[in-house]
TrEMBL record:
Annotated source species: Candidatus Defluviicoccus seviourii
Binding site for 3-phosphoshikimate: 22-23, 27, 167, 169, 320, 347
Uppermost EC category: transferase
Catalytic activity of the protein: 3-phosphoshikimate + phosphoenolpyruvate = 5-O-(1-carboxyvinyl)-3-phosphoshikimate + phosphate
Main location: cytoplasm
Quaternary structure, from the entry: Monomer.
Limits of the Enolpyruvate transferase domain: 9-428
Any one Gene Ontology cellular component term annotated for this protein: cytoplasm
Protein name, as recorded: 3-phosphoshikimate 1-carboxyvinyltransferase
Family note: Belongs to the EPSP synthase family.
Metabolic or biological pathway: Metabolic intermediate biosynthesis; chorismate biosynthesis; chorismate from D-erythrose 4-phosphate and phosphoenolpyruvate: step 6/7
Amino acid sequence: MTAILSHPVRRLAGTARVPGDKSISHRALMLGGLAVGETRISGLLEADDVLATAAAMRQFGVSVTRPADGWCVIGRGVGGLIEPSRVLDMGNAGTGTRLLMGIAAAHPFLTFFAGDESLQARPMGRVIAPLAAMGATIHARSGGRLPLAVEGTADLLPIEYRLPVASAQVKSAILLAGLHAPGATTVIEPAPSRDHTERLLAGFGASVEVTATADGGRRITLEGQPELMGRTLVVPADPSSAAFPLVAALIVPDSRVVLPGIGINPLRVGLIETLVAMGGRIAIENRRVESGEPVADLVVETSPLNAIDVPAARVPAMIDEFPILAAAAACARGTTRMQGLAELRVKESDRLDAIARGLGAAGVRVRTGPDWLEIDGCGGPPPGGGGVNVHFDHRIAMAFLVLGMACRQPLTIDDDRAIATSFPTFISLMTGLGAQLETVGTAAC
Ligand code: S3P
């Protein structure tokens, strides 16, 4: 593992081409594999997590190739996958694992899933319960953890399932299983979570009905056993990756950064709404729709930020953005309060804990509870000067490298490896804007 020192910088400027959306990339490969014929994908994220899904689809007998002009998937049709001859090594990819478990549940063979230490610690019971109710048998380590085996069935039953927490991963696992079941599968979510699966399913030719529930949630009904047709897809740039250069441009002095082609799905823009409410100058230009997803160019300029209370209702729309929001809050004037964050404890790391410790290392005052976080902003550059343990979490690593750019003294992260799971070009992209990220050798654990 390599430690990286992030130096304070005077300004950031330029155009940042952020790689493709991770959530959409996983789903494009999976649905391409379940469609009939050829799916051509441009802008697919070529990062470890998505490459693990591509390898898994190949194990299921799907042709996944990478010609010069993008990615090409030749599907086997709904229910047409074959038994993998090896354990699927999903690395760090929680989304890939949970969604593929839904697909594996609908096939009459055994699929074995393994992952790295972080993935092995993540709860899979939330996916196991609905898939078991549909008729699959799942053998998992105690606590519903990886490694696990899904014993699927060709006779999956459609269900109506009420999600205990708003989770696009669990919703999508059920919908992908339901795709193979006769009749209608319905998922009711307590609050709307990212809807890329629903949009893509409709785009591939499935019938999906979405209605609002009286309590602010959504009811999604999918008709099972459609014939999905291969298609051409453009994956927008990932708003969750764009969040890092975006916040960097806000908190580093005299900066102006353009971020072209960023996905602005309304269920992903919670961070932008929050930063605008804090005083961030973020212009959203050239709004358009690509492959069924709203996209725009963002222009971001350095802004004095003021603390706010982030409404709990906004959490699902910015679930992955709290580490980088914490960096912005550390530079803001006043105390930023965030609540409803229990899910952050079961992400790639315990993010509430990792954020609190990292901010402490940067000399920022922070308080945290079971599901909340309060950050006393420095009203300008935080002290910095410390070392941050990133717990093999890509978003913790990138958030603290960004914070280091705006501190008075440099910040060090202990391990850069996880960045490759979602944003392999992060270091070169940020350096191109003016960041000074120095490799300081191999850190001890
Ligand atoms: C994702 C959903 C979110 C998010 C994850 C990607 C997806 O997880 O944190 O990074 O692609 O469906 P949950 O659905 O578990 O909240």
